[in-house]
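thread: overnight batch results

M.L. [08:02]
morning all. the overnight job finished for the chain we discussed friday. pasting input first so we're all looking at the same thing
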Amino acid sequence: MRKIYSLLLILLINFGFAQIPEGYYSTATGTGFELKTQLYNKISTHTTLIYGSGLWNLYPTSDVRPDGYVWDIYSTCNFIFGTVANGGNQDDGLLGTIECQRFNKEHTFPKSWFGGVSGTAMYSDAFHVMPADKKDNGARGSLAYGMVGVATYTTSNGSKIGNCITPNYPSTLKVFEPADEFKGDIARNYFYMATCYENVIGSWQTLDSTGSGDTVLDGSNDNIFEPWFLNQLLIWNNQDPVSQKEINRNNAIYAVQGNRNPFIDHPEYVCQIWINACNNMSTTSIESASIAVFPNPSTDHKVTINTTLAIDSIQLFNLNGQLLLDVNNPIFNNNSYTLENLPQGFYFLKLSSNNQSLTKKVIIN
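M.L. [08:03]
and the structure it wrote out:
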């Protein structure tokens, strides 16, 4: 019955708010950061939900899977909505030491990054505070999102923790990589935060004592993000387009919070705002198919790079981000270049060509 009730609520919301409200974005007429400010003026004034009951009561309509269970962004657990006393798995301060015992509320944009002050609009903003397995949520902490090389922790849906291999950021940064099916959701959460809190986010850069927020935020109220992180968000936004799940969630939150995520309604706004970053995005990475690295894994301490591209540099990093090899303008023979005498281990091979780059994982057994 619980599952049927949740599904009915979703259907009601879809029927009630199947379309973007007429005229909602009528003032969004600019481009660049002017457009972002116009969107800020539209969405920044909204109802501040109670962090406890407000979100717990919202989730059964905003984050319900088709089978009626909780749509958790970090696990595949079949969590039941509601308190433990009523047969649910909502966090009660107990358990959560392993996956699938309890779910709680995850600030996808860590609360420590904005000072962690409860009672503020951003503290309980449902657009970025999402249900998540308690164990996995605790493991992530306030880590920045990024691309992981070797995982030191992996969740049941494939999210993982490890050293960062996102292009243009050293792998010494420890990050959390969400599962592929949620990367676009996360990116649009961050574009929303950059817009809804445009008036204050420029002061958040150094509030996080761990320094994690400082690696992501650039201290401005227009561009908001450091180049490496913005590029990653743009890629995730493109690779994982808006889903029906996000549309349903947007509508459900609008029903109680009174504002919308513009980047779910209009994904094209992203590149209408961050114009330069979008224009440069296509020149920051090489298509993986254009370069072959083999054998990988290798058992004879060497790998061969095969490509018809003009490679400007070859760099090899270890797991700690230490540069082990740096070859400028390598000479290829029949479109091939071989790295030899490589010790056993796991490496990141970065290849650069005409201001583009590609990083590949290499294993030497």
